Every structure is written in structure tokens, then in C-alpha cells.
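haha ok so turns out i had the wrong file open the whole time. this is the CORRECT one, sorry everyone. sequence first:
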Amino acid sequence: MRTDRDLHGLGVPGAPHPSGRPSAVEPSNAVEPSNKVPIVDRRMLLSLLSIGAAEALLAACSASASSAPGGQPSAPNTPREAPAGPAAAGMVAAAPGQPLPPIPPPHPGPAHPTFHAPGRTQQIALTIDDGYDPQTVAGYVEFAQRSKIPITFCPNGAYRQIWDQHAPALRPLIEAGQVQIGNHTWTHHQLPGRSDADIRADVEKNEEWIQKTFGITSRPWFRPPYGAHNQHVDGVVAEMGYPRILLWNGSFGDSTQLTPDQLIGLATRYLQPGTIMLGHANHPTVLGLFDRIQQLIAERHLQPVTLDTMFGTSRATG
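then structure:
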């Protein structure tokens, strides 16, 4: 089982997830965290190791192919005052939305685990998971509306009472192509070791809710809970029409509660060209940091895009 890719947040000790989520399996190459930083929890250790593995992979690709993304340069620690408005983040305000296309049928295909942009680019993809904190979900929706920055949300239908109230605000952004929705399962339970029927039911229930609530399909993008997946799980969801297995190579680390300094430190480290950035709508720390995150994006001339834009996929074809 691939738990070496479980970058589902570089968390620090905090309250257990309300759904009682299990921890990811310890990777064989685990190392002890430094005693100069706060004690990290299991998911944070896995995440740090996994991002390091992803960075090593990116560096190797850069050395072997000119089209592969390069290594991540060091980033400034002291941000300057950010210009205001969407243009400051390299963004243009979203165009008026078109009517959403009919929901397409599934298109099964070979599984493609995806960690980063497909080539050298200034593009980044902000991907935000879960959504069990009402304040944080509302804050992300307001940030998307205000900043015009594209975001891909990967919500769990188990938190539908929180997400449903924001559907009227999100639908116009989805129609405009600024917001995309990915499938993250209904329950957020780990998939390896579960029966094929159980995996399908968890994914299908979430897709049904996404279609009903947001008027769009989440196909072909599937993010496995905790990043825990293997060839068998990938094959099951790919047969369902989710060949794009959404992983990541950068994280805000906020699957558990962080301090503002911890979160902005990870943002400073990982908001680099070609990054698929993982965040969570679970803890309110990020709400006071949106301006600084937007400032980093602007200063580095990054271009936030949805996954459809980054990879040429389409909500119209699924």
C-alpha cells in the first residue's frame, strides 16, 4: 500500500478527527523528527517524508528530461506588502459562467497517480480537502469569491450539512471554471484492505452528492483519503471513471491544528512552480493567512489554476 505518498497534512498533535479516521501506515523509511521542533504526529511525519520523496522525484525528473519540473528554489521568509486585487496573484477575474454541461458518462482508463504539474510551468493547483469546520469552509468560499483564485475542492459528503449551504455561492464559480470539485469519498475512510464493493459504494455516494449539490461531476479526479492507495485501489476507481489519482507535492500541513507561523512556513516552502498544493478546510488558522498566501503567489509570479486547466481534463467529458 502506498502510504509513502500520504501527505494528507503536516499536522501537529491535536484533537482526533471527528469521524475517527485511522492513521496511515508507517512507511518503512521513517526517520525521527528533530527535537528542536514541536512533537509531530504520525500524519505529519508521513507527510514530511512523502513531500521529501516527491521533491527527490522532481529533482531526478529535472535532470533527465527538460520538460520535467525543476527543483524547488529556496523562498524568502519575509514577504513584502502584497498588491491588492486578483491581478496581484497573476489572476484575471473569472468570466461569466456558461450553463453547466450535462453530466457525462464515466470514462474508465488506466490509473495515473498525479503529484505535480506535467511540465515546466508557473502554474500551481490549490486543492482543499474535507471540510468539517463550518468557519473554515465559509472562509475558503469567501476567499475564492474575493480573490478570483481558482481552487479545486475535494469535499467529503459526510460533511454535507456544512457544504450544502455554500452551494449557491459555489455554483457560479463552478460555472465560470474558477472552482472544480474532486471526489474524496463520502466517509474519508482508508481504502486499501476494503472490498471492491465497499470502495465503489463510498466513491459513488460522494459523486451522487456532488452532482446533486454542485451540478457537476467530479470525474476524472479522485483523491484517496490520507493519500493511502495501491495498484488495486487505483484500478477499482479507474474502472469507475476516475483514472486521475490526485496526490500532491506540497502541503499547508493543516490536516491538524497548526500555529500561523507553522502554516505560513510550509506555504513559503511549497508554493513553487508546478506544485499541487494540499490544504484542508478543517481548522481556522488559515483564515488569517489568506492575504499572505495570495502575496506569496503574486511575488513568485505563480498562476493558480484548476486541475482541468493544468492537465487538460474537462468537466464536460468527465
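The longest helix spans residues 42-64.
again sry for the mixup
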